[in-house]
């Protein structure tokens, strides 16, 4: 179950929304929130051949227990104090780390190795659900932990839709979605995708049987649609506040998002949780 929540944070509005979503979830599941603020270094990295490495120049820890915090002296930007105040007020426990790096996505990926969930804002440079450069870079390779992509405004999680695909990531998505639904006391609707199979009902029965262990409420349906199409069809039908999808086994090319991600990001007013 999710306990250690990591938030990629900066001074932008989407990052503030991501922090609010993370705090709300942490309060519901008795988790902790860990903030990582990545300040991008100007100029080229000194070792271009290590472009995939985090490239961390400096890492500063900011405590939550200090009565006073001089952010300048601690090497943290002033907006970090606002986030620190919110964490203290929420009383969920956690920590803040400020990093300077040439590779923000790689830095977040390294920090996420020790997290149960990584939460990011949708983008501060685009409207709609287009993701920014850092999130896009995260999605171009396999995720170290589940990734929650927020919308441009805070959304309470009141309904959950799971798109199931066969495979290890699909099984983990079932487990995580069911645990969240049970903990948050909300319905879990599941669409089992079995493209090209003659008996999709068999896959549906397998998933429905697995969900019985979590005592969740909701429909379990089967479809022969491709997962990319099923995301849009079911998403528009159920209009969930949280959509859970497994990470695709094939991420295509490094310059292009997987079609499943692109389809999921088209759904309006929906939080997206990707499970590796």
Verbal overview:
It is globular, with a radius of gyration of 19 Å. It starts with a strand and ends with a strand. It has 9 helices and 11 strands. The longest helix is centred in the N-terminal third of the chain and has 17 residues, at 13-29. With 276 residues, the chain is α/β, with parallel strands linked by helices. Helix 4 crosses helix 5 (133-139). Strands 3-4-2-1-5-6-11-10-7-8-9 form an 11-stranded mixed β-sheet, with helices on both faces. The chain has 2 domains: 4-149, HUPs (Rossmann fold), CATH 3.40.50; 160-275, HUPs (Rossmann fold). The chain is 35% helix and 22% strand. Strand 10 (242-246), helix 9 (259-264) and strand 11 (271-275) form a beta-alpha-beta unit.
Largest sheet descriptor: 11 strands, mixed
Unreliable segments of 5+ consecutive residues:
48-52, 67-73, 124-128
Order of helices and strands: EHEEHHEHEHEEHEHEHEHE
The count of β-strands is 11
The CATH architecture assignment of the largest domain turns out to be 3-Layer(aba) Sandwich
CATH superfamily of the largest domain: HUPs
Number of helices: 9
Average pLDDT score = 84
What is the name of the CATH class of the largest domain? Alpha Beta
State Rg.
19 Å
Overall tally of domains: 2
Global shape: globular
Q: What fraction of residues sit in β-strands? A: 15-25%
Helicity, in percent?
Answer: 25-40%
CATH fold-type name of the largest domain: Rossmann fold
Lateral strand order in the biggest sheet? 3-4-2-1-5-6-11-10-7-8-9
Distance between the termini: 14 Å
């Amino acid at each position: 179950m999710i306990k250690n929540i990591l938030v990629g944070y900066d001074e932008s509005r989407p990052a503030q929304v991501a922090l609010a979503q993370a705090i709300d979830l942490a309060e519901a599941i008795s988790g902790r929130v860990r903030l990582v603020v990545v300040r991008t270094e100007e100029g080229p990295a000194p070792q271009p051949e290590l472009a995939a490495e985090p490239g961390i120049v400096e890492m500063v820890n900011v405590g939550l227990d200090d009565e006073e915090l001089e952010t300048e002296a601690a090497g943290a930007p002033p907006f970090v104090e606002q986030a620190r105040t919110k964490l203290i007020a929420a009383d969920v426990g956690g920590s803040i780390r400020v990093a300077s790096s040439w590779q923000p996505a790689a830095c977040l990926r390294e920090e996420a190795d020790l997290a149960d969930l990584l939460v990011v804002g949708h983008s501060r440079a685009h409207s709609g659900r287009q993701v920014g450069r850092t999130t896009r870079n995260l999605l171009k390779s396999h995720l170290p932990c589940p990734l929650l992509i927020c919308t441009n405004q805070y959304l309470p999680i009141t309904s959950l839709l799971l798109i199931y695909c066969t495979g290890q990531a699909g099984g983990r998505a079932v487990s995580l979605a069911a645990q969240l639904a049970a903990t948050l006391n909300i319905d879990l609707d599941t669409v089992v995708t079995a493209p090209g199979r003659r008996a999709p009902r068999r896959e549906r029965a397998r998933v429905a049987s697995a969900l019985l262990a979590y005592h969740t409420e909701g429909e379990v349906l089967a479809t022969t649609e491709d997962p990319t199409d099923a995301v849009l069809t079911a998403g528009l039908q159920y209009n969930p506040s949280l959509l859970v999808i497994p990470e695709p086994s094939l991420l295509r090319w490094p310059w292009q998002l997987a079609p499943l991600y692109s389809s999921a990001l088209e759904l309006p007013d929906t939080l997206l949780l990707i499970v590796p």
